[in-house]
Design brief:
The chain is built from seven helices and seven strands; from the N terminus they run H-H-E-H-E-E-H-H-E-E-H-E-E-H. The protein has 155 residues and is α+β, with helices and mostly antiparallel strands. The strands form two sheets. It has a four-stranded mixed β-sheet. Strands 2-3-4 form a three-stranded antiparallel β-sheet. The radius of gyration is 18 Å and the shape is elongated.
């Protein structure tokens, strides 16, 4: 990494104003968020807007592949593929009450905006994670840094 790039801060490479979901977000809505925004993970925020977790496509797929009670995984995957935009709402499959709170990662990696990119990369590598949430001192999300953002620095 060049000297100039090693002086970069988290705020310099983050994607600002990240899309967020709440713990009560249902699986179909989460899948739509991922699809509509072409992203693979989002911060989870509480009612005040503070970061309480993170959830990814991998988490969603893992949760659906487990199934629930008498509902097989195939049904859950069909729920995710159902767009809910059919002419008759009776045709939309009923969605089980699986919320982000059921499978999000609590206490995600949050970093200060002024933390060096080198330190962020080290933390992500040590924790073996693909995203860090840039948050202010009160825990409100300011941005997100992904492993792809890190890889873009070494071009």
């Amino acid at each position: 990494m060049s000297l100039v790039k090693s002086e970069l801060k988290a705020k310099d490479i983050m994607t600002p104003d990240p899309v967020c979901v709440t713990p009560a977000t249902r699986i179909r809505e989460l899948a739509l968020v991922f699809e509509e925004h072409e992203i693979s993970g989002v911060p989870v925020v509480d009612q005040q807007g503070k970061v309480v977790g993170v959830v990814s496509k991998t988490d969603l797929i893992r949760r659906c592949s487990e199934g629930i009670d008498d509902i097989p995984p195939a049904y859950l995957f069909e729920i995710l593929s159902e767009r809910g935009d059919t002419e008759s709402s009776a045709e939309v499959m009923p969605e089980p009450l699986i919320c982000v709170d059921d499978f999000m990662t609590e206490d995600p990696l949050t970093v200060a905006p002024d933390l060096s990119v080198t330190a962020v990369a080290r933390l992500m590598s040590e924790k073996r994670i693909h995203r860090a949430i840039v948050a202010d001192a009160e825990g409100f999300p300011l941005g997100i840094i992904t492993s792809m953002d890190m890889l873009a620095l070494i071009r």
